[in-house]
Each structure stands twice: as C-alpha cells, then as structure tokens.
Amino acid sequence: MTVQNDMSQKYSKATIIIHWFSTLLIFGLFFLGLSLESLQPSEKLDLLKPHASLGFLLFLLTIVRSILFFKSPRPDNLQTGSKINDKLVHYIHNGFYILLLLIGISGVVTMIVGGYGDALGANDWQLIKDSETLPSLKAHGTLSFLMMALVVLHVIGVAKHYLLTKENTLKRIV
Fold first, then answer.
1. Which of 3, 102, 115, 134 is a good FRET partner for 157, with 20 to 30 A between their CA atoms?
2. How does pLDDT run across 46-82, given as a tens digit for each residue?
3. Where are the domains of the chain?
4. Alpha-carbon gap, residue 15 to 122, rounded angstroms
5. Phi and psi at residue 74, in whole multiples of 5°?
6. How confident is the model at residue 161 (pLDDT cuts 50, 70, 90)?
7. CA–CA distance, 101 with 51 (Å, rounded to integer)
C-alpha cells in the first residue's frame, strides 16, 4: 500500500533547533563518555567537566522539548502503510524522550553518589568513588548504548522511508 504523507507540515522552530542541537550533543557526549570510561580517576576531571555540563544541558533541553511536544503544534505521525512500522516509529520517537530523561537522571545520580560532583568542586580526583560500585554509572552507560542503537534505528527508518515512499521526511525537521 502506498501512503502519501503531507511533508509540508513542520515541527516548530524551537523543536527543530533543539532536535539538531540535541543530536550533536548526543554524539559528542557518547564519545566523550567512551573516553572517560577508559581513563583512571586521576585522569578524568578534565573530560568530566564538559561531559557533565553538556549532559546537564541536554537533560534540560529534553525537558523543554518534552513540554513543546505537548504545547506546540506538530506534524501528523508519519504513515508507512504498515501497522507494525507505524507502531515502531511511535515507540522509537517516544523512546528518545524516555532514554534521554533516564540518561540525564542517571548522570545526576552518579554525579552525587559517585563523588564526581564533589571531585569537580574540590578539583580532587580522589573524591571519585570506584566505578564498579556505582549501579547508576552502569545504568548510565547501558542507557547510552541503547540511545545509540535507537539513533541507528531512527536513521535506518528515515532512509527506508525515503527509499520506499520517495518522501523526504527530513523536510519536517529542517
């Protein structure tokens, strides 16, 4: 079944800006987090500062975007011609919001219970607790990998939609 979606419908300017800025932050934070993982506590402070600051910014932007999701007009959901694909699109989009909020919460909790906030404030790496004893840090890492998997699925979905329906869905978010 061929479905034609209205590609003239766009998200609000604020949503578009937050979407693309968040995209950059997600990639930057993921790779910064991978770098932090391989460092010893004595080497972490210099990378931890931007990771924590940018992570908190992404968390706040996600809250703003979540509010905009309910307050601003948005395009109709894309139709793919398949009920399963339509549900998958819905779950992936909602999954982004949920994962970004959970990653932000786990990051804040880790900063508090892991001594990272104290270490940054005192500029003393010795205040950082052993990462093996921090369930919130493990959750933070796992959720981050799930986020990257969701990003891959999202990109595959955009490409698949374009190839199958010849509709440029990016028009809605640029």
1. 102
2. 999 999 999 999 999 999 999 999 999 899 988 888 8
3. 13-173
4. 37
5. -140, 160
6. confident
7. 16
For residue 165, give the 3-state DSSP assignment.
Answer: helix
d(CA 19, CA 65): 8
- DSSP conformation letters of 25-60: HHHHHHHHHHHHHTS-HHHHHHHHHHHHHHHHHHHH
Tell me which residue of 79, 87, 100 sits closest to 29, measured CA to CA. Answer: 100
In angstroms, the CA 114 to CA 130 distance is: 8
User: How many Å apart are CA 144 and CA 138, to the nearest integer?
Assistant: 10
What three-state secondary structure class fits 39? Answer: coil
Q: Please, are residues 164 and 147 in contact by the beta-carbon 8 Å criterion?
A: no
Residue at token pair 């793919």 = 80
